[in-house]
Amino acid sequence: MIKFGNMRSKLSIILFLAYGFALYSCGEDIDAECDAPAPSSLRISVQPKFGASDLFLDSIYTSSEGYLVKFTDLKFYLHEIRNESNALINAALFDYRERSALLIETLGEKNKFTSLQANLGVGSEQNHSDPTLFSSESWLNISNSNDMHWDWNPGYIFVKIEGKTDTIPDAIQELNHNFVFHCGLDENLQMVDFTGLDWIDQGDNLSELKLKLDLKAFLQGTNESIDLKSEFTSHSAPSQQFLTLKVMQNFKEALMML
After folding, report:
1. Do 2 and 126 fall within a single domain?
2. Which residues are CB-contacts of 110 (< 8 A; sequence separation ≥ 6)?
């Protein structure tokens, strides 16, 4: 005789054990989905260079004029990073000393970003917004922007480059000549555009785009060079407009695919 009660008890035990194993396989969250793929993420890195060499802060390089030059701070904003109507992130702050080559890492699918456009700097509307009102996650929030926002002249510093140089070519290394470029203001905003992007698979659904910033090319410029002997300071004052715009344009040209 078949004892249905015993069979039901055994079946219940088997189902209970199977359900428990499934939960264990998916994790402790009952609502978790087994084998759910990780969301796609995109990372953009920027490797500073000086010609063919990787550039490191506080190291000494030689410019085309024969000047010894040492960079001590390197920061810049990219704003409204997108591919046409596909927005990637509103704002990203590059800070070489604090975050090394990392510009951003955020959710995104590489097939939607085969090219990228962005402001080099911060667009007019948000440039003049109250920096305390941005989300705490935003690089435009005053707690994250830190010294990249002017308190005396409402708006963001788009590009910050600081360093020291020796403009007397001789056997004595004496880098006692400071250079400071703090460039902002709406009229100096530049647009960058990268096409034919080569996203590199880094595993775990993460793809990386590698850019470079060649500071030797920045000083040389495509059309006009920056002579650190005579062109060494800009805080974007009206009297410094010619140099400020040159810095922004040369910087834009020096930022390219790696």
Report:
1. no
2. 40, 42, 197, 199, 207
Structure tokens at 221: 């410029």
Q: Are residues 151 and 189 in the same domain?
A: yes
- Report yes or no: 234 and 240 within 8 Å, Cβ to Cβ: yes
Threshold 0.90, pTM exceeds = no
110 and 185 housed in the same domain: yes
Kindly give the pairing relationship between strand 206-214 and strand 41-50. parallel
Tokens for 26, please give them.
């998916």
C-alpha 217/C-alpha 229 separation (Å) is: 17
**Structure token digits, residue 28:** 């402790």
Q: Is the dihedral of CA 111, 106, 135, 211 positive or negative?
A: negative
Do 116 and 170 lie in one domain? The reply is yes
Count CB-CB contacts under 10 A for residue 189. Answer: 17
Domain count, the chain: 2
Containing domain of residue 11, as a range?
1-36
**Residue closest to 198 by CA, chosen among 186, 209, 214, 189:** 209
Q: What is the DSSP pairing of strand 41-50 with strand 155-166?
A: unpaired
Q: Per-residue pLDDT tens for 99-157?
A: 999 999 999 999 999 999 999 999 999 999 999 999 999 999 999 998 999 976 779 99
Same domain, 21 and 48: no
Return the pLDDT at 110. Answer: 96
Amino acid at 197: L
Would you say 77 and 121 are in contact if contact means Cβ atoms under 8 Å apart? yes
Burial of 187 (0-12, 13-18, 19+ CB in 10 A): exposed
